[in-house]
Amino acid sequence: MSAHSWLCYGYDADAAVRLNWWGLLDSHARAAAVPVWILGLPPKEAPITAHWTVAAIAELPR
């Protein structure tokens, strides 16, 4: 198994999304646009077959 993210393949540039300071998507709307983009691609242009995982990171008040 290979541990890579979609950033390793440049999909962020292909999807025309802007990443925040930490290299993450900073809103649910932006994150929701990525699978819409991926699913709309022709099969020959689709991302490689891999086990992709979505993770949410939050900063909680102290």
How would you portray this structure in words?
With 62 residues, the chain is an all-alpha fold. It has one domain. The chain contains two helices and no strands.
Count every beta strand, where a strand is a DSSP E run of 2 or more residues.
Answer: 0
- Overall radius of gyration: 13 Å
Question: How would you sum up the major sheet?
Answer: none
What is the N-to-C succession of helices and strands? Answer: HH
Low-confidence stretches: none
- What is the 3D shape? elongated
Strand content: under 5%
The number of distinct structural domains comes to 1
Percent helix range: 25-40%
Number of helices: 2
By secondary-structure content and strand pairing, the structural class works out as mainly alpha
Mean pLDDT, as a whole number?
78
What is the rounded distance between the termini? 37 Å
Please describe the structure with a list of short key phrases separated by commas or semicolons.
mainly alpha; 2 helices
Indicate the topology:
Blueprint: H1 11-14, H2 28-39
Can you summarize this structure?
With about 60 residues, the chain is mostly helical. Helix content is about 25%, strand content about 0%.
